[in-house]
Amino acid sequence: MESCRPQSCTESMKIPPIPPVRLAVYGDLNLNYVDGSAIWAVSLVEALAGLPNVQVSFFLKAAVTKTEVIRPILDLPNVQVIPPDPTGEKVLSPPAALAAIRSHEGARPYTAVVLRGFALCRQAAREPALAGRLWTYLTDIPHQADALGASDRQEIRGIIQASRHVLCQTQQFADYFTSIFPESRGKLHLLPPMIPTQDTNPAGEPARPDAVFRICYAGKFAPLWASREMLATFKDIQQRHGKYVALHVFGDKIHNPPEDPLFKPDVLAGLKKTPGVVWHGRSTRVEVLRQLPGMSLGWAWRPAALEDHTLELSTKFLEYGISGLPVLLNANPVVRGVLGDDYPLFARTEAQARARLADAMCDASLLAEAGARCKAVAGRYTIAAIRRDYLAPLLMPTSLALETPLPKPGKPRLLVAGHDLKFADTLLGRLASRYEITRNYWWGHSHHDVHLSATSHDDADVVFCEWCLPNAVWHTTQPQRQKPVVIRFHRQELYTEHPRRLNMAHVRRMIFVGEETRRAAIETFQWQAHADKLVVIPNYVDTAAFDLPKTPDASFNLGIAGVVPSMKRLDLALDVLEAVRHADPRFRLFIKGRRPQEYPWFRQGRQGETVYYTQLLARIADTPGLRDAVVFDGWGTDMGAWYQKIGAILSVSDYESFHLAVAEGAASGAIPIVRNWEGADEIYPSQWICRDVQEMAGRILAQARDPDIAAQRTQVRQHIQRTFDISHVEAQYDRILAAL
């Protein structure tokens, strides 16, 4: 990993020879807006185009109607700017953008495809034709581990697997990223922000010809960008200093957040009506850089609510700095790393920002010291420096060959392979002290990097396949390099042909979460001769995460987690709710998970499913006893907190293999109300299982009226802890793996 401090650069330093390459560059951004992401894209193209033997195809999300941002690259001879096809989408979606790239490469594939944007990279990672050629730059993902949900983590792992290079802005982000995704080591590279080399103070032109102290801000206006705070601070200073202070503002991108309807009017009023504010409006980067030498100080301060959650370096800070301006900003870890802890214009709070600004106006030596330090830092981030120190190495022949070094440990080497590793990541991660675990991420059910899969397979002692899909087929059918394979089978695989294609001779164990699914698999795939390999290990529950106090009204709150597809039988849950509300109108039903309308197939009108949910939603809206008693809580990973308000958890599906929501709800102390789907009685206690809606309603009413309900809740918690706690399930997996 490169250092996060780019070294100072001179154009005279030679770039080593680069073989001829064709690069496609696309960012999920619109160049008609003057903002940081658009400027980044143009700067990247300019930097790449300055390398020898490089041809760049720059694909646009939307046709350019304003050329301020793109102007620096329009006349570069080795850059082809490709707007959207006028017969297609006017503003490209991620699939349309990738289709445009494929159509233009034709018989001459691009050496690399450079992409920015999480949704775009996620889509690209699913396309086998792009595997191993992607350079992915991820900025729009949370910079805190607890804000990254399980599905996002899985998508990011797919992106890493499909990428040749994963790019990030700072060493701090790289450290964070590899701590969560250790498999990114070897692929992760720094691509710091970049700024033009600037002749900031032409000879004979005084930088500040009068006594006016000019504060400068260039950028967008948004609540977390401290736009209101900046205008309020300036208004306070202007009232004290009058004509001797001015605020020059560049930019016209003002957010209009629906949760803060007064934000945009407040900012517009401040820009137009505050004495001393000079609003330059929409301005190009070149125009701003030309104005900066006449300024006194750059405003880049943003509140801790934003700065404490970012691991990036502000390009505006660098632009101010390259012009020799001292910069007022917050002391997050990234800027402390480049400026030092003793930089004199750090401010944590708005009050401190006002105080530092007041100090700076009265202290020329402070301004000079801060300005010199900012300029020294910014000089290391010029386009020329980034081109030479960061981009050129990625195009060297050794970088163009995808190599992923694998560890050679003394512990048994366990390879985990599949497209969805949420279960395996948590459980098998607990075995890391006893096994050297590597991961082979597939994107989708069928697509993978064959070279990487083969290398990983060869290096492993045991292969664990999560899901019995093409991943399991591939790892059991490698005739020259046979390895023992353990497969975790889900119910969905019963309805596919993939299990029939396994080489069962190499399957050492196949794990099911319930006996009913195991029996069905034996019968469906004629595995009677292999029955001794097929074992049942239940799903695990992290019981400690659910052992939280209940809310006072929990006994009257029913919960159901996941109501899609229709076999989850939301209609029966509504029947149960109506039955208990006839006896007591305090009951409500809370639904955790995505609404049916949020799935693409709902809008596409999938036959049967769409009709089913349309009728149910109308039933809820039109029935007085349901209208105010059904709450859609939406999808989220906060299940422990959600279960605190749930007194009874429903499982009314037509069929399930295990139904983890029952176990998690019980771990929280919610009383399980389980329909007698096939196999339920082999997983859960018989007293939890009900024959029909009437029996379910009776059990719910009984628990709500039970004066000793706390004892009931303790009993169901203890059953889950004894049976399904992650420590018990971990031990069962450990025994199986140790015996291979």
Automatic annotation (TrEMBL):
> What SUPFAM superfamilies does the annotation carry?
UDP-Glycosyltransferase/glycogen phosphorylase
* Gene3D superfamilies in UniProt: Glycogen Phosphorylase B
* Key word Transcription present: no
A GO term for molecular function = glycosyltransferase activity
Q: Which organism is it from?
A: plant metagenome
Q: What is the protein name for this chain?
A: Glycosyl transferase, group 1 family protein
Keywords for the protein's UniProt record, in alphabetical order: Transferase
Residue spans making up a coiled coil are none
